[in-house]
Design brief:
Elements (H helix, E strand, L loop, with lengths): L2 H10 L5 E3 L6 H10 L4 E3 L3 H15 L4 E5 L3 H12 L8 E6 L10 H17 L3 E3 L4 H18 L2 E6 L21 H11 L5 E4 L3 H12 L7 E3 L7 H11 L5 E6 H6 L2 H8 L5 E7 L2 E2 L5 E2 L7 H8 L8 E6 L15 H13 L1
Parallel strand pairs: 1-2, 1-3, 3-4, 4-6, 5-6, 7-8, 7-9, 9-10, 10-13
Antiparallel strand pairs: 11-12
């Protein structure tokens, strides 16, 4: 399906405002609206915020917005969908465009398997009418227009689910320049060189965990000191905090990303205010959602170190916060962990038990 035709079909029904969190299956759609919609498009910190933003847009204009997300973002979106936009509450129309990672029968990463199985049933439980966009372009455009019409007629959220490969390729044109020259993988290697022998590392989902794994492989090191967070975007620091609280004499390092830390920024407040001097939170900031198309975050426009300091980081007896500016992008041949998450967990717990 051509993304320009898709956006124009929505516009014909009154949808001209777009918001959400980028997804690899929606990469072409996200790139197109980023390039063409200007102030009528906002990349939000998380999917729940996008639902709330769309609600505010409708209240001010009387027009429904489109909220896009990966299906892993359904969890973030459930609260405002059920307690704000639902017909039993404020009855706010909007269209949800959802990338179907982990679709049953399709090979995908471990963190997407369960989410893929329950994507449609979650919306059914919420009472949100849901359709899977077909491969046929004309039928898909008609379905999109019908979804907007139903959202308006019934004053409710309506969902459109997108399978892998549905949209034709569109590449982001208006790319922001890199905020640094240092490659993220090189930064990870240099960080590992500074760690004490008994330190453990919790890495966030996406490229950072993949690059940490590859760096250990390249250096001939095992993976028993690393917990590679899959999914759970924005929560790696809380995993690290849980470990740091339980083992206060062990150095615990969280390797985080700007998009992840911004997505669940409240976690920084809890971690920063804790009395865990053994915890170090390192954000590798390239101001981009790197693993899903390179769409921008606000990481280059806000000061994460100042926010961290306001949360209590770097005070005596509190966790340490560091930010490393890195360039966007990763090696084309970047691999993925060979072991399943359960093996990673077993090895990591064995290290913590020593």
């Amino acid at each position: 399906m051509n993304v320009e035709k898709f956006v124009k079909a929505l516009a014909c029904e009154g949808v001209d405002f777009f918001c959400g969190v980028p997804d690899s299956l929606l990469k072409s759609f996200c790139a197109y609206v980023t390039d063409t919609c200007g102030t009528q498009h906002t990349i939000t910190a998380n999917e729940g915020g996008a639902v709330a933003l769309a609600s505010g847009h409708y209240l001010a204009t009387g027009k429904p917005a489109l909220v896009y997300m990966q299906n892993s973002g359904q969890g973030n979106a459930v609260n405002p969908l059920a307690s704000l936009a639902d017909p039993d509450v404020y009855s706010i129309p909007m269209v949800l465009l959802v990338g179907w990672r982990g679709e049953p029968g399709k090979k995908d990463e471990p963190q997407h398997v369960k989410q893929g199985k329950v994507t449609l049933s979650l919306f059914e439980t919420l009472g949100i009418p849901t359709s899977v966009l077909p491969d046929d372009e004309a039928a898909g455009l008609a379905m999109a227009r019908a979804a907007v019409a139903r959202a308006l007629a019934e004053s409710r959220p309506v969902a459109l689910v997108v399978k892998k490969g549905l949209f034709e390729t569109y590449t982001l044109q208006n790319k922001k320049p890199d905020i640094a020259l240092l490659k993220r993988e090189k930064a990870i290697e240099e960080i590992l060189d500074t760690l004490p022998a008994d330190a453990v590392v919790v890495s966030t989902t996406g490229m950072i965990s993949r690059e940490l794994y590859e760096t250990r492989e390249r250096l001939g090191q095992d993976h028993s000191k690393d917990f590679l967070t899959v999914g759970s975007m924005g929560h790696a620091i809380m995993i690290a905090l849980g470990i740091a609280k339980a083992q206060p004499s062990r150095p615990v390092i969280c390797l985080d990303g700007d998009g992840a830390s911004i997505m669940q920024m409240g976690n920084m407040a809890i971690a920063g205010a804790s009395a865990c001097a053994n915890l170090t939170h390192i954000v590798l900031n390239n101001a981009a959602h790197d693993s899903v198309g390179g769409q921008p975050t606000v990481g280059g426009e806000i000061s994460l170190p100042i926010i961290a300091s306001a949360c209590g980081y770097n005070l005596p007896g509190h966790p340490t916060f560091k930010m490393v500016l890195v360039a966007k992008g990763a090696r084309a041949d970047l691999g993925r962990p060979k072991e399943p998450p359960q093996v990673n967990k077993k090895l990591f717990m064995e290290t913590l038990a020593k």
